[in-house]
Amino acid sequence: MNDIREDIAWAKINKDVLKSLENPRKLFWVILLIAIAAVGVAVGCEVYQYTVGLGVANFSNPHVWGLYIATFIFWIGMSHSGTLLSAILHLMHADWRKPIYRFAEAMTTFSLMTAGLFVAVHLGRVWQIYYALPYPNGRQVWPNFQSPLLWDAMAIFTYLSSSILFLYVGMIPDLAICRDNMNPGWRRKLYTVLALGWEGTDRQWRNFRVTYLTIACFLIPLAVSVHSIVASDFAMSQQPGWHITSFPPYFVAGALYSGCAAIITLFIILRYVFKFEEYMTLPILKKIVRLTFAIAMVWTYLNLIEYAAVWYGHDQASKDVLIQKMVGPYAPFWWTMNICGSVVPFIMFFKRFQTHIPVLFAVSLLLNLGMWLERWMIVAPTFSHGYYPWTWDHDQWPSLVQWGIVFGSFGWFTLLFMVFCKVFPSVSMYEVKEMVYHRSQATKKLEATGKLAASGKGAH
Amino acid sequence: MSKRHLLALFSNFDEAEAVVQELRAVNLKGFDADKDMIVKSPIEHPEVEEFVGDKPVYVQWFTLVGALTGGLLAFTLISASQGNFFAQLKGGKPIVPFPPNFVLTYEMFILGGVYISVLGFLICAGLPARRSPLYSAKVSEDQIGILVQADESASSSLKSIFTKHQALEIQEEAGK
Amino acid sequence: MSVTSLLENYSEFRHFHPVDDVPHNPYKWAMSIDLDACSGCNACSVACYAENNLPVVGREGFAHGQAMHWMRIERYWDEDGREFPDQGAQFLPMMCQQCEAAPCETVCPVGATNHTPDGINSQIYNRCIGSRYCSANCPYKVRYFNWYDYPTTDNVWPAEMNQQLNPDVTVRGKGVMEKCTFCIQRVTVAKNNAKNEGRLIHDGDVQTACQQACPTSAISFGNLVDPESKVYKQWKAQQVELDKDAQIKDKEEGGSELRGYRIFEELRPYPSVMYLERVRESAV
């Protein structure tokens, strides 16, 4: 249970992190291979679906949406924790975020990229996807700006490009370190270009600080707006089970929840694969676990309040959808989702499990299973028990094509993420230095005032 | 008059600060502490900014302009495109509906803000740039560098200031 | 140009339809269906398949719920303990209700579905990208998606059968949404004929395929703003008003004796199809 050492040499930080770009453990290649295989499965399914038509995914009229939309929401949701760690905790000066925010921010970017693919996969005529872009044309035909799907597209584009910029700007000083230390080769050329000639001058740092802070300030409302807009896809419609006022905050909480769970998973993987034991320390893990637990409770509350509102609101159609979820064909999934989302997190309540890596790994995966099911349980049951009696009991089991693409999306995400961590420093070197520096300053101050003896061993 | 560049490396901020203070005080030919002295550090460090002195940062003005332009542009363009000669009634809602347009305006507000902030950062920080004539990889590791530019005649006195404060290394190069 | 149009017509762009709006003029296509006359024979559905080139998806496609019946006959059974065949069945022909404020229109990301000046909910196949949001938001679930490329699929229109395809109607490729159009191709022809003769369409000039095929004349179709038309008279007689989300007659104490109603009126889509309620055996 050692935290990052305060006396760790700055040169050693550089060396350790740069090593992660060179020689990860063997597991890295295993993960990469599995990921590529999974992507292969998805590509195969998509090619088949593209040529034959969406019927092979086993949709039906009126059950027109399925796993694609559910998984789309899942990936959008996943992206939110990166912003939580990198932007919100940055504003709050929580220094424990520093060794882990880089990979969390990368997670944001790549899960958004994965989510974007689902928009394409879902479409009936993906080759006409550009119709949804507001490109100027002589006929003055524009997309329909009233559609929540278009807001989605706009929000995701904004979020994706902003988080790429945020990730990149925050990485410039580290890219300069890579540039200075790498052996000549394509990588060094890449870093030289990307570092933009960063030298760490006073002028650069001043502007850097303000810019980073500004983008962080923008990203927070942006992240909230992105998932509330995704919630609007449902809340702005008229269907029972979707038309619920509390959806936007509920979606945002769910997003942060699944994202935090994913951060725990990736934390554990990265820590092992890239030998980051000294930086991704257990006290940091403990803090994320506690944060996740708190968000789990927020989600549980909003989830229950949604049921309560539907029940007490007594709109018969919505109530029937809820009853269908509880006892209908989707019941096993609905109950699993509630158990995974609201009961499993209580494992994190126990102190001894808060740093227990195998348990946490399992728990984090279960939480995300619950959150994925949550999205499916939002999308699907409304189609099988909507307003119109003709739709009732019209459940539709997704075909293997749908499952294949959903499965492959995890591979796609892992592939992008793992390649990123191999090419770019996934621990922020300059910020770890800052963290170490500030902690050692604090220790010095304590020593100077003679309080160290009273506060026990170690400053933290 | 040929100029000369000097880069000195220090192991901690206190020494660097002392050097900066001293450079401020000295009166050397062709050397102006405000213009010819650049402090480089491996971390973002508020104390460096304190002892180097207050210099205004203009990035936030870019942000303001970017965000406002983005939002304004979004609202005008979207409303205008809805009001083109194809104006189509949809779902009985007004042809220029405010709630959706506000959502999109909000997104463009942020998009404009972020993009122009980054642009502002590049402009204000002078990036991308060629690296200065004297550069040491040590700066990106753990040392603080002070780069000065002065007349050739002043170089020896500058060097003595650096050595007085335990400079770890001094690099020297004739300027163009 | 767009900005000028925006500024010039601003007030026109800022009202709700149909509540704050003037009625459609000179045409507003509407329907009324008398459920008492409906015998559930499915002739309307068959006529629709023939008229609108609807693909026949076959047994397997039907089992997967991928049938393309723009006009479907729904069966509702009395649940009073009687067994089939004595169990009273009631039939309801269901097709796109051509809402005045259609929930499907606002949600389409590309604006492929719009409200036309003669009060129909149009679907532009060329523009559709297949997000299927319209179907998700349709309270009646009357939109049908081309899950496969039906024109090239075996046995949809086998060799001789493709000779019966209607040349006035396009066949739809995979990945687009489609639905009842109120036989827009017939309306267009009638409109052109009337225009050539310098008049408006008279009642009876245009019939929809389902109306034409109905053996009991349960379906009437016509111009709701033409006081001479049968549809207008029926709506008037049943006191059903287009731009109301609850009819005044229903607020009468003890309820109205009139049979006219619209489905899901309270969701405010302002549908253009009025049904005449069946007089139930139990009520007699």
Q: What do you see in this structure?
A:
The complex is a heterotrimer of chains A (460), B (176) and C (284). Chain A is built from 16 helices and no strands. Chain A is mainly alpha-helical and 460 residues long. Chain A has a single domain (10-455), classed as Formate dehydrogenase/DMSO reductase fold. The radius of gyration of chain A is 24 Å and the shape is globular. Residues 456-460 of chain A have low confidence and may be disordered. Chain B folds into two domains: 3-54 and 132-174, ACT domain (Alpha-Beta Plaits, 2-Layer Sandwich), CATH 3.30.70.260; 59-124, no CATH class. Helix content of chain B is 48%, strand content 15%. Chain B has six helices and four strands; from the N terminus they run E-H-H-E-H-H-H-E-H-E. A four-stranded antiparallel β-sheet of chain B has the order 2-3-1-4. The longest helix of chain B has 27 residues, at 98-124. The model of chain B has no long low-confidence stretch (mean pLDDT 81). Chain C has one domain (17-276): Alpha-Beta Plaits. Chain C has helices at 2-8, 43-51, 58-63, 103-107, 133-137, 184-196, 209-213, 230-237, and strands at residues 29-34, 72-77, 89-94, 113-115, 121-123, 144-145, 177-178, 219-223, 260-261, 273-276. Chain C contains eight helices and ten strands. With 284 residues, chain C is of the alpha+beta class. In chain C, the strands form four sheets. In chain C, strands 8-1-10-9 form a four-stranded mixed β-sheet. In chain C, strands 2-3 form a two-stranded antiparallel sheet. A two-stranded antiparallel ribbon of chain C has the order 4-5. Chains A and B meet through helix 1, helix 6, helix 8 and helix 15 of A and strand 2, helix 3, helix 4 and helix 5 of B.
Which pair has the most extensive contact?
Answer: A-B, 59 and 62 residues
Q: Name the CATH homologous superfamily of chain A.
A: Formate dehydrogenase/DMSO reductase domain
Order of helices and strands of chain A: HHHHHHHHHHHHHHHH
Portion of residues in helices of chain C?
A: 10-25%
Number of strands of chain A: 0
- CA-based gyration radius of chain C: 20 Å
* Shape descriptor of chain A: globular
Number of DSSP strand runs of chain C: 10
> What is the total domain count of chain A?
1
Number of domains of chain C: 1
Q: Which strand order do you get reading across the main beta sheet of chain C? A: 8-1-10-9
Return residue spans of chain A where pLDDT drops below 50 for at least 5 consecutive residues.
456-460
Question: CATH topology of chain C, anyone?
Answer: Alpha-Beta Plaits
What's the order of the H and E elements of chain C?
A: HEHHEEHEEHEEHHEHEE
Largest sheet of chain C: 4 strands, mixed
End-to-end distance of chain A, in Å?
12 Å
The CATH architecture of chain A can be given as: Up-down Bundle
Helical/strand content category of chain A: mainly alpha
